[in-house]
Amino acid sequence: MADITEVSENFQLGKKLLCEVIFRKQKDKKPKRSTWKFNLDLTHPVEDGIFDSGNFEQFLREKVKVNGKTGNLGNVVHIERFKNKITVVSEKQFSKRYLKYLTKKYLKKNNLRDWLRVVASDKETYELRYFQISPDEDESESED
């Protein structure tokens, strides 16, 4: 039979190891983000004159939902436009995917979805690009 002191020592050792594991896990956790910042680069379509960045900014202000309600931006979500770039800064969790969804919705509404696509150029930026149409495809269609 195990001695009571031996069992007690093993219990104390196990307790100490458990505390170390918990402490390490708490130490490894990253702090939660305080702000979310995303950019939309509209340079090419705006320069070509087929896209109105001011109208798009207004569309975002009207359509972005905060706490399930549109037009409820308050001090939580800030939408800023500087030349051909739109920046969305949020103090609450905000999805980059949601920004892409709204951009595609705007393109569809203005019949630009057939010409432009939304591409992620880096972790926090989307860019509007034209679809690449190769000249070979056009020639084969005209021959038929």
Question: How does this model look, in words?
Answer:
With 144 residues, this protein is α+β, with helices and mostly antiparallel strands. The chain contains 5 helices and 7 strands. The strands form 2 sheets. It has a 5-stranded mixed β-sheet. A two-stranded antiparallel sheet has the order 2-3. A hairpin with a 2-residue loop joins strand 2 and strand 3. The N and C termini lie far apart (93 Å).
Distance between the termini: 93 Å
Give start-end ranges of low-pLDDT stretches. none
How many β strands by DSSP? Answer: 7
Rounded radius of gyration (Å): 27 Å
* Shape call: elongated
| H-E string | HEHHEEEEHEEH
Q: At CATH's second level, what is the architecture of one domain?
A: 2-Layer Sandwich
Q: Output the number of helix runs.
A: 5
Class by SSE composition: alpha+beta
> What can be said about the biggest beta sheet?
5 strands, mixed
Question: Could you estimate the helical fraction of the residues in percent?
Answer: 40-55%
